[in-house]
Amino acid sequence: DAGITQSPRHKVTETGTPVTLRCHQTENHRYMYWYRQDPGHGLRLIHYSYGVKDTDKGEVSDGYSVSRSKTEDFLLTLESATSSQTSVYFCAISELLLETQYFGPGTRLLVL
Amino acid sequence: LAKTTQPISMDSYEGQEVNITCSHNNIATNDYITWYQQFPSQGPRFIIQGYKTKVTNEVASLFIPADRKSSTLSLPRVSLSDTAVYYCLGGSGEGSSASKIIFGSGTRLSIRP
Question: What tens digit of pLDDT does each residue of B51-61 get?
Answer without folding.
Answer: 888 999 999 99
